[in-house]
Amino acid sequence: MDKDQILSKFSTDPDRYYKVALFESEGFRRKSCTKCHRFFWTLDDGLSLCPDHIENSYSFIGDPPTNKRFDYTQAWKEVESFFVQNNHKSVGRYPVVCRWRDDLYFTIASIVDFQRVMGSKVVFEFPANPLIVPQTCLRFKDIENVGVTGRHFSSFCMIGQHSIPNSQGYWKDRCVDLDFKLLTDRFGINKQEIVFVEDVWAGGGSFGSSLEYFVRGLELGNAVFTEFQGDLTNYSILDQKIIDMGAGLERFAWVTMGTPTAYDCCFGPITKYMINKIGIDTDSNIISKYFMSIAKALSESDDISIVRKTAAKIAGLDETKQDKMISPLEGVYMIADHLRTLVFAISDGALPSNVGGGYNLRIYSEEHLQLWIDLAGILISMTSLTFT
Ligand SMILES: [Zn+2]
Q1: Distance 42 CA to ligand 1 centre (A)
Q2: Structural domains of the chain sorted by starting position, each given as residue range(s) with its CATH number in brackets
Q3: For residue 131, what are the β-bridge partners?
Q4: CA of residue 255 to ligand 1 center, whole Å
Q5: Which of 158, 173, 293, 370 could in theory staple to 314 by disulfide, Cβ–Cβ 3.0 to 4.6 A?
Q6: How does 356-387 read in b/e, with b if 16+ C-beta sit within 10 Å?
Q7: CA–CA distance from 193 to each of 135, 176, 189, 218, 251 (Å)?
């Protein structure tokens, strides 16, 4: 299905597809980005650019938009207690090895936990409604970005907020209301800083509108309202509509900590150990400036080698300095990420092999075996979120 076509159809009727009760009650205004024309909702009258194109993107690095600081584990505890207080059941994560789906090796999103494939149809099995789940997801698609962009991981914790609208569950209005309150009340983010961007989601024969929410250019979550089945020429409303809100826990922690990259706040002890061991020259000002520039570079190109060059140019780093300072850091971040992915996959029963998903693991484990052994103790404490 052509996402752009669905988006342009939905955008012609924002009241039907995007305008939630919160936008009305808080006075959000709908705007079109003066650069790329995407539609977004904001309380900031002066804002004319979408989160991809704003001037102060990633300015939370070194200057978080909240006076609260939550590390990785605390960030989850905060999210969990908020949703539990609001009548959600907190469900333990599912394995990262997706044995209940023949078409997937690994769990790639929290909603996958509850999908059961019956022939050509996907049905949902929710253990509770509504619910929240800290689902570790494995994705090998953007692998060349891992360690480089400050925000890409091969494994990450997706905060899954899921609901079926019926007597217990809810639909769009309450979903966005809760996400907004989580950011403002719990994380202490000023409401002027929160921007919702109109988007759509399509897959597995169904589709719907979605609202991505951003703070200073960083996408924190995406609330998908799966509502229709079929395609644009012939579709009907699903018997069972689904709220599929997924947010990156790493990013929630990062935005409150304001470290140069999400890796620094999520892999803290691991990256510190490696940096000390290798003895990398770290000047936090230069590094912060470089990773802020990455955001701007990413808005202009998908090609990671161009992104690196552009970021260095904006941050005023010459090639020698980038090679000496940034390249080894990228290696450290990448290793920490790959190790975590292996710990999850292997502890959930996957084995490095020559085929399918096992191949990704084999490449990872051969690359980093000795380091993995050195770091075993720290790794186990780092993943305590999973094992407890
Ligand atoms: Zn834009």
Answers
A1: 13
A2: 3-255 (3.30.930.10), 260-387 (no CATH)
A3: 89, 162
A4: 21
A5: 293
A6: ebbebbeebbeebeebbeebeebbeebbeebe
A7: 27, 15, 7, 11, 15
Q: Which two tokens stand for residue 107?
A: 């769990």
- Beta strands (DSSP E) in 204-340 are 206-215, 218-231, 234-248
Q: If you measure from the C-alpha of residue 219 to the centroid of ligand 1, how many angstroms do you get, rounded to a whole number?
A: 13
Distance 320 CA to ligand 1 centre (A): 33
* Lookup: tokens for 231: 């395609």
Angle at 76 between CA 73 and CA 77, to 5 degrees: 85
Rounded to the nearest angstrom, the distance between the alpha carbon of 22 and the centre of ligand 1 is: 23
pTM of the entire predicted model? 0.91
CA of 52 to the centre of ligand 1 (A): 5
Amino acid occupying residue 265? C
Cα 350 to ligand 1 centroid, rounded to whole Å: 41
Integer angstrom CA distances of residue 78 from 36, 69, 159, 199, 287 = 35, 11, 12, 27, 29
CA distances from 261 to 79, 177, 281, 326, 331 (A): 21, 29, 16, 12, 13
CA of 299 to the centre of ligand 1 (A): 9
367 CA distance to ligand 1 centroid (A)?
A: 39
Q: Each residue of 240-249: pLDDT tens digit?
A: 999 999 999 9
In which residue are the tokens 């990785």 written?
72
Cα of 70 from ligand 1 centre, angstroms:
30
User: Which pair of structure tokens corresponds to residue 214?
Assistant: 């951003």
CA of 109 to the centre of ligand 1 (A): 26
Cα of 197 from ligand 1 centre, angstroms: 10
pLDDT at 93: 97
AA letter at 117: V
| Among the ranges given (114-123, 224-233, 317-326), the one the predictor scored with the smallest mean pLDDT | 114-123
What pLDDT, on a 0 to 100 scale, did the predictor assign at position 274?
87
